[in-house]
Amino acid sequence: MASLTLSKGSNLSLTKADPGLSKAMIGLGWDPRTTSGEAFDLDASALLIGKNGKVRSNDDFIFYNQLEAKDGSVVHQGDNRTGEGDGDDEQILINLNAVSADIDRVIIVVSIDQADARRQNFGQVRDAFCRVVNQDTDTEIVRYDLSEDAASETTMIFAEIYRSGAEWKFRAVGQGYAAGLHGIATDFGIALD
């Protein structure tokens, strides 16, 4: 099965593209621009969103300091602090069968750590992508290569995995947030200190 490549705003039924899919690996990659300034540290995270468009609690925010959802349905594979090398820089595993029925979608976010202090943004990041791989068969189902210039944005929603009736679908989002991870967290109901 050849992987499909989506453009921004497009979606794909994962259930139809790979009927055997139950455990999805979300691979995320990027290459920061070479600069003489401070090193880049990009961080992937996942937000489990209910039908009301918000998280149920801070437990639904999966990131480098909270690697696993309470029910084990979403697991972050750990922080990569440099983004060096080929392939996925960070990975998030989603057991679709284990995702609670009151979760409507899983939003995949990538943010630049200390972006404001380091004066960094997504305009300085190239070759960013998000892909979905069937963990059981190691087959890539879909890929989204982010190509837009996001020079003012420090955090970006790369994609989301969402329910549509009995199906799971993938949407290539590519929406940047100049307000950073704090802005996204606030919009989706995470309580920050």
TrEMBL record:
Q: Where is the TerD domain?
A: 4-188
- What InterPro entries does the annotation carry? Stress/Tellurium_Resist, TerD
Family named by the database record: Belongs to the CAPAB/TerDEXZ family.
Name of protein: Chemical-damaging agent resistance protein C
**Organism this protein belongs to:** Arthrobacter alpinus
